[in-house]
Write a structure and sequence with these properties.
Length: about 300
């Protein structure tokens, strides 16, 4: 589903210059692809060290943030890219009861046991639900919450897949999909989507496509269906920001994902890149994340 009115796509320099102002008002600019920056450090760039926790989305693992992590660390920042239970290198730990609370526990534990504070917490895709649960639990540890082409939970949409409020029945598309689940609870990307859901099927993208084919794993279905319950406001009051990958050509994330992120109190940033921009545009993504951290 496509969105209208994302505005003129501008240069990286323009979006970075405008982010400080965009942090105070809804809207924003659009980043454009370009040459990746060379290694820098916090001491030479004038940046103060920031702490990032980058959370992967469905079917991925911490590995998807590899290049962004490297660039941020080169600039002197502290970066954690945990993999949630049942995913990536922890795929062997998936069980039928692995769900949303498991993933919230995973990320909250990293923040707690690494003794992190002032965290810029970033979540991709349906991990927007996960990071909202983490932020609700550890509000005093979070500097800013960033939804990276992610689902923003709000009343009426507190799960990836919501049952009908009257009947309790799940939508037909979901019921049909469950027939393909491995062992009844493991979602398989390849039975539901083409690779173009994540990045363009062009020759230039082939190295990224090959990597995705090697590393994508199944995902616990309950992380989509478990309903998030918040007690402390979730993302509210945590300088929420939304990075919308408007360069995605196959089923771009719609308003059903973005939700309130174009409204007051949010920083909304259209990024001219596909859904897996952390792989295809790591320079743009790392620059934007640093600016979001500095302007929170």
């Amino acid at each position: 589903m496509t969105d209208k009115g994302v505005g003129m796509r501008t240069s990286r320099r323009t979006i970075l210059a405008g982010l400080a102002a965009a942090a105070a008002v809804p809207g924003g600019a659009t980043a454009r692809s370009g040459p990746e920056p060379g290694p820098t450090s916090a001491s030479t760039s004038g940046e103060r060290p920031l702490t990032f926790v980058l959370v992967h989305g469905t079917w991925h693992g911490g590995w998807v943030w590899r290049d962004v992590r490297a660039l941020l660390r080169q600039r002197g920042h502290r970066v954690f890219t945990p993999t949630c239970t049942g995913c990536g290198e922890r795929a062997h730990l998936m069980r039928p009861d692995t769900g949303l609370d498991t993933h919230i526990d995973d990320i909250a534990a990293v923040i707690t046991y690494e003794e992190l504070d002032d965290v810029i917490l970033v979540g991709h895709s349906f991990s927007g639900i996960t990071i909202t649960g983490v932020a609700d639990r550890l509000r005093d540890r979070i500097r800013r919450i960033v939804f990276f082409d992610a689902l923003v939970p709000r009343p009426g949409r507190m799960a990836g897949v919501m049952p009908d409020p009257d009947t309790g029945a799940y939508p037909d598309w979901w019921v049909k999909r469950t027939a393909n689940f491995v062992d009844g609870y493991q979602m398989d990307f390849w039975t539901e989507y083409p690779l173009e859901m994540l990045l363009p099927g062009t020759p230039a993208m082939q190295p990224h496509a090959d990597r995705l084919k090697r590393l994508i794993t199944r995902h616990p279905a309950r992380q989509w269906t478990d309903v998030l319950h918040v007690e402390n406001g979730g993302w509210q009051g945590l300088s929420p920001a939304y990075i919308h990958c408007v360069g995605q050509t196959y089923r771009m994330s719609s308003d059903r994902m973005v939700g309130p992120a174009r409204g007051p109190g949010w920083t909304y940033i259209p990024l001219d890149a596909p859904r897996n921009a952390m792989m295809t545009h790591p320079g743009d993504v790392s620059d934007i994340l640093v600016q979001l951290g500095e302007t929170a």
